[in-house]
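Thread: Newbie trying to understand structure tokens

Hi all, I'm a second-year student working on a class project, and my supervisor (Dr. K.) asked me to get a predicted structure for one chain before our next meeting. I've only ever worked with sequences, so writing a 3D structure as a token string is new to me. If someone could post the tokens and maybe explain what I'm looking at, I'd be very grateful. Here's the chain:
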Amino acid sequence: MNAYALVLNAGSSSLKFRVYHRPSAVDEWRLAVRGQIDGIGTAPRLTAKDDAGAVLADAPLDSAVRDGRAALDALAAWLHGRYAGAQVVGVGHRVVHGGTRYAGPTIVTPQVLADLRELIPLAPLHQPHNLGAIEAVAARLPDVPQVACFDTSFHRGQPAVAELVPLPRDIRRAGVQRYGFHGLSYEYIASVLPQVAPEVAGGRVIVAHLGSGSSLCALRNGRSVDSTLGFTALDGLCMGTRPGALDPGVVLYLFQALGLSVGEVETILYRKSGLLGISEISNDMRDLLASDAPAARLAIDYFVYRAAREIGGLAAVLGGIDALVFTAGIGENAPEVRRRIADASAWLGLALDADANATARGATRISTTASPVSVWVIPTNEELMIARHMGVMLGLIEART
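---
Reply by user tm_fold:
Sure, no problem. This is what the structure looks like when written as tokens:
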């Protein structure tokens, strides 16, 4: 491989990466390597597999890998050893928040970085690490173009009422609106629906992106018309450590009656609530499903309840639904959660096929053939979506030179 493109998804304690190549300019991006560095700052470890799933690396890293920049240095050393002499043609990044200014992928410039730093308060768990990876790549590969792809972009163009936050106009003019997130995941699902489920691709579809971060998106003809995440990634569904929809008066109570600081409230909302806060056991659905503790069952019950409630709300927005799609970590791998959500949503006209649901692998229909509303499991691929966007942006650069 003479040249490759790199896709990065940087978090607080992990750096996920994908290596893509194209045999020719007209070919689809092909996955060469996928992997991650976990345990940054504690017990860092590099794992990587090729496109067939064969293990390429699974080893601890030096304890000096304590932050994202050090993790990127370790990744660069590993890639150099594997692809010595190969050219990096571009680096694509998942960036959680693009605000109102960035409604699509963009080539990173100093001004773009400055604009995105201003959005850190709206995505404090993700944005600093996303931008830190961009800065680290720029320092190491200053001549390699970088493309920022935003989780908010896919939702731009929603009806005005779906974006509105009902606060005074001067506050709304300062950028307070509903943005929506997980857009790269939803965009990927919308892109494959015409092949996987052509009979519903142009219709009314609700996609359930269920994972550590969870949300729902209402699609009409493959476009986002509403979603459960709003101004920040705290809204909507119950998540691993985030509460989802919350009466604003609760936040006032935390400040006024309990006397908590801004930092303490932020920590509660982003790191101590959701499944973890309810169960006091784990933020991981797998742990909760394996537990007999009443608090674990309550956390699952609430997760299912909120998902079913929000599905009903988005069905009202769409005027009915033609299909429900499950994706992301929980959506793809927890048949019990899918079953319970589908059962709670049966009034919409969907009937699950128990065997298909229990054995679903890959893109699979899990509803009965007689079900008026079809139900699907479709694995998401945000990294491939980023690679596609990066290819388009790199093509624009080539066309200008």
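A couple of things are worth pointing out once you decode it. The first strand starts at residue 3 and ends at 10. The chain is about 40% helix and 20% strand. Feel free to ask follow-ups in this thread.
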